[in-house]
Design a protein that fits this description.
Mean pLDDT: 73
Structural class: alpha+beta
Largest sheet: 4 strands, mixed
Low-confidence stretches: 4-23
Helix content: 40-55%
Order of helices and strands: HEEEHHEH
Strand order of the largest sheet: 1-3-4-2
Strand content: 5-15%
Distance between the termini: 84 Å
Number of strands: 4
Number of helices: 4
Shape: globular
Length: 149
């Protein structure tokens, strides 16, 4: 009986382990639908904001420029409860309109970073060819040293 219980416990562990492994976190980055967080507004058209005056929790500093955030509606509504999640409790905060984020900011951000990624890929590709050329020259030199001319 004891062996049966041990075997059952091992089988139960084996069955639940894959389910736990399948519980994988999903990472959404800036510029993608569903991203919430601080936005860099420089170089973008003026954002459509939800309130014309910034939200301030814990006495914001007027020395720093306001920050622009894309947040879920519940976070905006209960900002005092959620400001710490965005490191923005002591900041002047404007909440950007969801429609503006999805139709103006995200597409431009993705386009800009797609071009940056293409440039990086081109540079890496060029470097790979330079390394291949250098290796081929070195192999040719090795072959020349082994023969009398």
């Amino acid at each position: 009986m004891k062996r049966f219980l041990i075997a059952a416990a091992i089988a139960a562990t084996a069955v639940t382990t894959p389910a736990l492994a399948a519980d994988v976190g999903v990472s959404i980055s800036i510029g993608q639908p569903g991203f919430f967080g601080q936005l860099d507004i420089g170089g973008y058209p003026p954002p459509q904001v939800i309130n014309s005056r910034p939200m301030i929790i814990e006495g914001g500093s007027m020395d720093r420029p306001p920050i622009y955030l894309h947040v879920p509606p519940g976070h905006q509504k209960h900002w005092k409860k959620h400001c710490h999640e965005y490191n923005a409790c002591g900041e002047r905060v404007f909440f950007v309109n969801d429609n503006w984020y999805n139709h103006e900011y995200a597409p431009r951000y993705q386009e800009q970073h797609r071009d940056d990624h293409r440039d990086e890929h081109r540079d890496d590709h060029r470097d790979d060819h330079r390394d291949d050329h250098h290796d081929n020259q070195r192999q040719g030199d090795d072959h020349d040293h082994g023969h009398d001319h």
